Amino acid sequence: MKRSLIVITSVVAMAALFIIGAVVYSNKSADQSQNLAVENSAALNRFSSITYGPADAKVHIVEFMDPACEACSQFYPFVKNIINSHPGKIKLTVRYANFHQGSDYVAQVLEAARAQGKFWPALEALFVTQDQWASHHAPAPETVWQHLGHLGLDFDQMRKDMNEPKVMAVIEQDRADVKALQITKTPSFYVNNKPLTKFGHEQLKQLINSELAIAYPGQ
């Protein structure tokens, strides 16, 4: 009986230490993310990046995403709905964190669509059909074209544009900024340069609402 009590006490103590350690690690990681965002603020704001929403919006969401990322495709309509629910107050800048195989190619295609004013429709189309071209076991990024046919894009021009130096420069800059900010997962969000340290829909909504209250008091 005494031996069992000692074992139980030891297990409880170990569990408590684990929980305390996890909390300390989480707080440390949050502080590190915030410090990196402050030290590398320029890495969050590149004029070459595509932005949805009015330029003068006071709440600025920066999302580092991978077009092949399932969570990114799930968060996209959620974020867009929040933006549209606060007209004129929020803007979203999308950056590339291409961790999946073939995602650089897809990013080039998206930038080529952007040159024809169709970035957002193209992104939405590829998110909707993501399971058809972004399989983790057999990704087929070269097949994304068949999911963009309804957008009226000039594919011949896109195939030229996607290899232009300015397109490659955007992707390379984003890759460098991902490294500087030590981003390791997608999507990664920043709201007015503040990182989302606890991942989740509700947590992101709370961070956005907090910044809305600061930027637009009493509204």
From TrEMBL:
Matching SUPFAM superfamilies, A to Z?
A: Thioredoxin-like (SSF52833)
The residue ranges crossing the membrane are 5-25
**Organism expressing this protein natively:** Deefgea piscis
Q: What is this protein called?
A: Thioredoxin domain-containing protein
Q: What is one Pfam family matched by this protein?
A: Thioredoxin_4
The protein's superkingdom reads: Bacteria
Family named by the database record: Belongs to the thioredoxin family. DsbA subfamily.
GO molecular function ontology, one term from the record: oxidoreductase activity
